[in-house]
Amino acid sequence: MTFPEPKSDATVATKPAKWSIDHAAQYYNVTGWGAGFFSINEKGHMVVHPMGPGGPTIDVMDVVEDIQERRLGFPCVVRFQDVLRARVKSINETFGRAIAELGYGGRYYGVFPIKVNQMREVVEEVLDAGAPYHYGLEAGSKGELLIVLAMNTDPEAITVCNGYKDEEFLRLALLGRKLGRKIVVVIEKLSELPHLLRLSDEMQVEPMIGLRVKLTTKGTGKWEGSSGDFAKFGLTVPELIDAVRILKEKGRESCARLLHFHVGSQLTEIRVVKDAVNEGARVYAKLRKMGLPIDYFDMGGGLGVDYVGSHSAGFSSSMNYTLEEYVSDVVYNVQRICKDEEVPEPNIVSESGRAITAHHACVLMNVFGSIEIGSPEEIALASQPRPDEPDVVREMREIVDSLSPRNKAEAYHDAAAKKEEALQMFKLGILGLEERALVETLFWKLCHGLVALNRGKKRLPRDTRDLGDKIADQYMANFSLFQSAPDHWAFDQLFPVVPLHRLGEAPTRDCTIVDITCDSDGKIEQFIEGEGVDETLSLHPLRNGEPYFIGLFMTGAYQDVMGDMHNLFGRVNEVHVFVDDEDPEDFYIEEVIPGDTVKDVLASVQYDTPDLARRVKGALDQRVKEGVLRPKEGVQLQDFYESVMRGYTYLSGL
Ligand SMILES: *Cc1c(COP(=O)(O)O)cnc(C)c1O
C-alpha cells in the first residue's frame, strides 16, 4: 500500500527538477497581465520594463533593497512613473494612428479623470507625458476642480467637469473660462442648465456646455449601474430635447460643444463598447441636425484592464479586446455613422482612468509567518504509534493508514466520525487534551493525503472536493487589504499576486493570504493562476530567518486613493521610481512619501495625542509614587509609548 505523504519540503524536492522560470511566468501568468511591463529575470526575480518590452529593466528586489536601506518599512507602494508615461503615450498614439489610417475628420483629445488617482505626482506625470497630445483632465467634484483648474494650463487641452454641481462648482468652471481654458461643464441633470446660463451671463463669459445622455446600452459586470434609464447621472432623451429647447430659447445653442456618455468602468466586452458608441454617435448626429454645434464626442471611461491576463470576457477582471481594437472600433463606428447621417466628424474624447493608471503601481510586502493546518512536524510526530494510546487514537491511525484511491470517500467519512467521537469523549472528560490533539492531527494527515490523491483528478468525492482550499496554508502578509486593495474586498476584483524572488524554485505550498487587520474579511482567496482563477495560490515554503517578499500588482487605479483606515492601519509608505540608464541598477528613487504615523491616524479619529500621552504618563507617575515602578523605568516606558506613536502603523518586525 502506498500512502501519499502530505506535501512537505522533503517530498517536494522531487518536483523542482522540472520547474523553471518559464513555469513561474506561466503559473503566475506574468506575460498575460503584464502588458509587456513585467517579467521574470534569470535570478528568479520579478522585473519591470517601465518603458515596455526591450527597454530598461528594473529588478524589483533591487527596489526592495533600496527601500530597506532607507529604513522605510513595508508595506510600500512603488510607483513606476515611466509606466504611467508609457500608458498615456500609448492611448494617445493609438488614437492618432487609427485617425490617420481611417482619414477621420476630427482629432483625439483625451482627458484623465483624476478620481482614479488624485496623487499630485500621478496627475503631474500624466499631464507631462500627455502634453504633446494636448491631453486634458476631468473633475467630478469641487475639490477635483480646484486641482484641475490649477494644473491643466494648456489652452488647447480640454477639461471636463462631471458630477452634480452647485453654484460654487459652476462659478469655478466659469473662472476657468475667464482664464481662457477649454472647460466644459457637463450637464448631469436638467436643472443645472438654467443656473449655468444665468451665472455665465452674470460673469459675462461664454460657457462650453456638455450634455450627458443616459444610453440604454448597459455595461456588464460590477459597474453596470452607470448607464440605463435609471442611472444616477445624465439626461434621458426627453430631457435632452428639453435642453435643446432651453438653449434655443435663450439663443445659446452655440455654447453646446460636447456630448458625453459613460456606460461603466472595466467594460469586459468589446460588443458593449461598440453598442454604446453606435448609440452615442446617433444621438450626436441628431443633436447636430437640431442645430447644436457639438464638436466633441466624449465616450467616457470604461476601457478595461486585463488583470487576469486571460483575454476573455468570462472574468469581470479581464476583457476580450485590446487597446488597438477598442480604438479602431470607436473611430470606425463614429465615422461610419457620421457619413450615414451626413454630419461632420467630431473630435473624440475619452476619459480612461483605470487603463492609464492600473499598471504603474504595486504594493510590496513581506510575509512574516504562516498558519498551517497539520504542519509536517506535527504530522510526523502523530504518525508514530504509542504503546499506551487509547483505542480512539489507534482506530483513527488505522483509518488514515488504510487510505487508498479506492476508499477515499469512505475513509474520509470514517475519519470525520472518529474525530467527532473523540470530541465527545473529550467533553465527557474521558479523553485527554494530548490524545485529542493526536486524533485531530491524524485527521489533518488524512486530509492532506486525500488532497494529494485528488490532485489532477476530475471526479472527486463530493465532501472532499474543496478540502484542498480548506487545508491550504494561510500566509500572513504585512498589509491591510482595506487600505491597499479595497476593491478585492468590495467587488472581488482580482489583482495579480506574485513572489518577488525565488521564482526559479517550485512554489510548493498551497496558500491563501491573510492581512494584519483583525477583520476576518481581510484576506485574499481568489487568485490568478495561469489564465484562470483559483481559491489558492502556490507560494514558496518560508525559510527561517529569511524574509519572503510578495507583490500585489496593478493597484494604480482607484485602490490607494480609496483605501480606508480599518483598524487604524493608515496610508502606506510610498516611493516613486524613475528609469535611469546611467545607474547600474537602471533606476533611482525620486521621491519618498512616508505613510501615516500612528499619531496621524489617531488624530484623524479625533484623539489628541499629547493628551493620550499625558494620561499614560499620569498613570505611570502614580505607579512610581506607589513605589511599584522605579522612576527610571517609568520614564523609559513613557518614551517607548511616545515612540510607537511617532512610528508606522504596520508591523515592523520582531
Ligand atoms: C469613473 C469615471 C470615469 C473613469 O472610468 P475608467 O473606467 O476608470 O476609465 C470616466 N468618466 C466618468 C464620468 C466616470 O464616472
UniProtKB/TrEMBL annotation:
Pfam families: Arg_decarb_HB, Arg_decarbox_C, Orn_Arg_deC_N. Its EC number is 4.1.1.19. The keyword Transcription regulation does not apply. The modification N6-(pyridoxal phosphate)lysine is found at K115. Pathway: Amine and polyamine biosynthesis; agmatine biosynthesis; agmatine from L-arginine: step 1/1. Residues 90-358 form the Orn/DAP/Arg decarboxylase 2 N-terminal domain. Its cofactor is Mg(2+); pyridoxal 5'-phosphate. InterPro entries: Ala_racemase/Decarboxylase_C, Arg_decarb_HB, Arg_decarbox_C, Arg_decrbxlase, De-COase2_CS, De-COase2_N, De-COase2_pyr-phos_BS, Orn/DAP/Arg_de-COase. Residues 598-651 form the Arginine decarboxylase C-terminal helical domain. It comes from the Bacteria. Keywords: Decarboxylase, Lyase, Magnesium, Metal-binding, Polyamine biosynthesis, Pyridoxal phosphate, Spermidine biosynthesis. SUPFAM superfamilies: Alanine racemase C-terminal domain-like, PLP-binding barrel. It catalyses: L-arginine + H(+) = agmatine + CO2. It is an enzyme of class 4 (lyase). Residues 387-467 form the Arginine decarboxylase helical bundle domain. Belongs to the Orn/Lys/Arg decarboxylase class-II family. SpeA subfamily. HAMAP family: SpeA. Catalyzes the biosynthesis of agmatine from arginine. This is Biosynthetic arginine decarboxylase.
